[in-house]
Amino acid sequence: MEPLAIPRPPIALVTGTSSGFGAATAKVFAERGFRVFGTSRSGAAGLANVETLALDVDCDRSVHACMDELRRRAGRIDVLVNNAGRAMVGACEETRADEARALFETNVFGVMRMVAATLPLMRAQGCGSIVNVGSLSGFVGVPFHGVYAASKHALAGYTEALRLEVEPFGIHVCLVEPAAHCTGIRMHRPERIVPEYDAPRSRVEATIQAQILGGNPPERVAEAILAAAVSRSPPLRHRVGGKARFAAFARRIFSARAFENVIRREFQLPGKPRRTPRCRAE
Prior knowledge:
Blueprint: E1 11-14, H1 20-31, E2 35-40, E3 50-54, H2 60-74, E4 79-82, E5 87-88, H3 97-125, E6 128-133, H4 146-166, E7 171-178, E8 187-188, H5 198-213, H6 219-230, E9 237-240, H7 242-253, H8 256-267
Parallel strand pairs: 1-2, 1-4, 2-3, 4-6, 5-8, 6-7, 7-9
Helix pairs in contact: 1-6, 2-3, 3-4
């Protein structure tokens, strides 16, 4: 990817820098000569060479206040990294609509707020890069991550449309979709638990936690975000990690039934009952 010509020092705003991908990304950008603004809900400073701003992406007022402060301090923005997000593990049946809505508020609507607040400045500059941090769950419906996967699928569709809309203004948009990495992300659970799902839910949760604990460091994703941000022609989707690349490949070449079998084996999930249920319509 050919590097994009941007002013020195370029200005990067990274959301959700208190830990994980966000902290690693802010650090990598700062090391490469960016003036970096990181965000957290408290606004407390935490990273060397990173200016911290208070931001709650769930709140319109907070987003506007953050962008006003960025304009006051820097006057421009060259890169926006939408990293702030939440995760949930639970069956689709267990997840109430209000719990799903809260997840979408951060993972989808929070991104939309940040983009809407940033684009006027980037359009006026005639350039800029937006990198949205998705997930393997953005193209695979991982069981017991159904609502989380739905939010990341929504983010992928939004990113694809946004990319074409703002391209004529010299603004590049792409999606970085990592598999599990060692980030220590918290998995929220629905309040209402259905006991019938206990065994498979626990197996999925244990598998994901093992993948996180044994995964590559978040700096690997941070480097991919940086590469996408400074590229003149970034790809729409950049998969990071062997499982993410394999899943994308398998989806293309396997039948739907074969791909489902791959997922069942990955998470040790049972298949369909051997006997046809009596309630089946004739």
